[in-house]
Automatic annotation (TrEMBL):
It comes from the Bacteria. This is Chaperone protein HtpG. Homodimer. Residues 554-631 are annotated as: C. It is found in: Cytoplasm. Residues 496-523 form a coiled coil.
């Protein structure tokens, strides 16, 4: 009888934790054992290759799963490299991996994540989450003696000699009895095992086989019989490893919809094999619609991470930059270790390299789409354009060079979305700045009094309708050395020299009138001016430099709104009859002019989409005027 040995102290503590943990993803034990079996097969295969051993081909190295309901036993059998007595002790009696410490911390912190076990390289021990006893029968390749390692976890393990016909390892799990909370019987169910293999180990590149019982109709009869078939449960070759020319659009679409639970087909598929200092395959998708929770806190970005076809992490967030967080997909690299944790990933140089390349890949795909498939790109921009604008804004403009040429804005002239480059290319020679106007909708902006004159002079205007637009543009500052100019803000400077002189003259001639208006409105406006930017409209309200009206509106909706206000300047059209009216009232009745001032200001507010302070007063004044006009 072999003497019972204690687990190394640290391993014992970890085991206790495993066994008692309320870890909800117990099912991953299967993935871990299969991945060990696959590793052991890899090792033998590698040995055969490097030592010129004949008779070992990949196809022979299958992984078998056997269910024995009578003994509540689940077995995972490989024909890999195997372990001798010493290795059984070393590998299964100790947790040599430094990751175990972090793993314990994570478990103790209650971090209940699908991946923590795989991450920390303590996979074998996960068997004890579902089994009360584990046997490992193993024969090392090239040796005659087999050994059995056995543990019921309570106080150590034994290693004994045994008979076993083949090289490789057989792991027997004696499953725990069901409890109120936990159903262990499910791991004796063929369909459940099949599901788990498909879910976690589909792309393991050895066949994972199991007997499956199905009922089949007997020939020439209505009766059914139970038939046992030996089935391969995994597909083995991942889609991303297949030659591109053999993959149809439907294959990609199906794969995407299935894997990422999207009803819609993807808008774009990017499939790449990269070889070099770091090698990887990537399969990336741009969804055609944002997921329901996309613009909320719940949405988690990231790509699935595989190492040699073995799934290691669901949402490796460092693989995609924030501004492309809509991209879904996966990366498979042989250069990454299975035992990598999220924390380690952040500092992993290899991963950074991959992430950089992925960002460039997405970038160039978008540029290509914009150039060659305008309609598709506009579709994309409708759904995810906001993300690009946020990218510029949130990075304080650092991402400007990468993202500015991917932006689209509505053009007043073209009546469709255009790029900044298209705007600048079409600019008139005398035009110095890129004009834009903001509002809730295209229609509302179109009705702004100030739009008319700018358009009339033949200048195009970009209409900004998203809240983030002006903030984004502020971060851009300029495009191709042309500054952005809000046509409702500050001085527009679009008049000819002659017009400027004329305007100065009008201002001079009406100094007293303007002063009086300004005095009447001194609590509301910074200034009252005659305007050069109005054509047929009587008045407009423009903001001073700095915060614009749209920005004021957006800012006021924020939870920590600090009451930032745009400066208000009332401009009056000197060519409008209203101006003549003002002049004559001013000559007759210095008091009356105050009512007029207030009315004009309120109108300008309404046009800008602001509410007025005293609607009743406004209404009364309008009525008075109507009555007076009909006396
Ligand atoms: P990891 O796989 O990350 O090394 P595990 O706890 O899963 O950690 O396994 C510990 C070690 O036990 C493995 O590194 C390997 O040396 C050995 N081992 C486990 N399962 C097998 C197997 N089926 N065949 C051969 N060796 C195995
Ligand atoms: Mg392992």
């Amino acid at each position: 009888m072999a003497k019972k040995k204690q687990f190394k102290a640290e391993s014992q503590r970890l085991l206790d934790l495993m066994i008692n943990s309320i870890y909800t993803h117990k099912e991953i034990f299967l993935r871990e054992l299969i991945s060990n079996a696959s590793d052991a097969s890899d090792k033998l295969y590698y040995k055969a290759l490097t030592e010129n051993i004949s008779g070992i081909s990949r196809e022979d190295l299958s992984i078998q799963i056997v269910i024995n309901k009578d003994h509540r036993m689940l077995s995972i059998i490989d024909q890999g490299i195997g372990m001798d007595a010493k290795e059984l002790e070393e590998h299964l009696g100790t947790i040599a991996n430094s990751g175990s410490f972090e793993f314990k911390n994570a478990l103790e912190k209650g971090q209940d994540d699908v991946d923590i076990i795989g991450q920390f390289g303590v996979g074998f021990y996960s068997a004890f989450m579902v089994a009360h006893k584990v046997e490992v029968i193993s024969k090392k390749y090239g040796e005659d003696q087999a050994y059995i390692w056995e543990s019921d976890t309570s106080d150590g393990y034994t290693v004994k000699e045994c008979d076993y016909p083949q090289h490789g390892t057989r792991i027997n799990l004696f499953l725990k009895e069901n409890t109120d909370d936990e159903n262990y019987d499910q791991y004796l169910d063929e369909y459940e095992i099949q599901r788990l293999v498909k879910k976690y180990s589909d792309y393991v590149h050895y066949p994972i086989e199991m007997d499956m019982t199905t009922s089949k109709q007997k020939e020439d009869s209505d009766e059914y019989e139970q038939v046992v078939e030996h089935k391969t449960l995994n597909s083995m070759v991942p889609l991303w490893k297949r030659p591109k020319k053999d993959i149809t659009k439907e294959d990609y679409n199906e794969f995407y919809q299935d894997k990422f639970n999207d009803f819609n087909e993807p808008l774009k598929v990017m499939h790449n094999s990269v070889e070099g200092t770091i090698s990887y395959d990537s399969l990336l998708f741009i969804p055609s619609k944002p997921p329901m929770n996309y613009y909320s806190q719940d949405y988690e970005k990231g790509l699935q991470l595989y190492s040699r076809g073995v799934f290691i992490m669901d949402k490796a967030s460092d693989l995609v930059p924030e501004h492309y967080r809509f991209v879904k997909g996966l990366v498979d690299s042989q250069d990454l270790s299975l035992n990598i944790s999220r924390e380690m990933l952040q500092h992993d140089r290899q991963l950074k390299l991959i992430a950089d390349k992925i960002e460039k890949r997405i970038q160039s795909e978008l540029e290509k789409m914009l150039k060659n498939e305008r309609e598709t790109y506009e579709e994309f921009f409708k759904n995810f354009g906001l993300q690009l604008k946020f990218g510029i804004y949130n990075s304080y403009g650092m991402l400007k060079d990468k993202l500015q040429d991917l932006l689209l804005f509505y053009s007043a002239n073209e009546k469709k979305l255009i790029t900044l480059n298209e705007y600048v290319e079409a600019m008139k020679e005398e035009q110095k700045e890129i004009y834009f106007a903001s509002g809730e909708t295209i229609e509302k902006i179109n009705h702004l009094p100030t739009v008319e004159m700018v358009k009339d002079k033949g200048f195009d205007i970009l209409y900004l309708t998203d809240n983030v637009d002006e903030f984004c543009i502020q971060m851009l500052r300029e495009y191709k050395e042309k500054a952005f100019k809000n046509i409702n803000q500050g001085d527009l400077d679009i008049e000819s020299e002659e017009e400027k002189k004329e305007l100065e003259q009008v201002n001079e001639d009406n100094k007293d009138l303007l002063e009086t208006l300004k005095e009447a409105l001194k609590d509301q406006v910074q200034d009252v001016k005659v305007s050069s930017r109005l054509k047929t409209h009587p008045v407009c309200l423009v903001s001073g430099e700095g915060v614009s009206f749209e920005m004021e509106k957006v800012l006021s909706q924020m939870p920590d709104a600090q009451g930032v206000k745009a400066g208000r300047i009332l401009e009056i059209n000197p060519n409008h009859q209203i101006f003549t009216a003002l002049q004559s009232v001013f000559d007759k009745d210095k008091e009356k002019i105050k009512d007029y001032a207030s009315l004009l200001y309120d109108q300008a507010l309404l046009i800008e989409g602001f509410s007025i302070d005293d609607p009743v007063g406004f209404s009364n004044k309008v009525c008075d005027l109507m009555v007076e006009a009909n006396k």
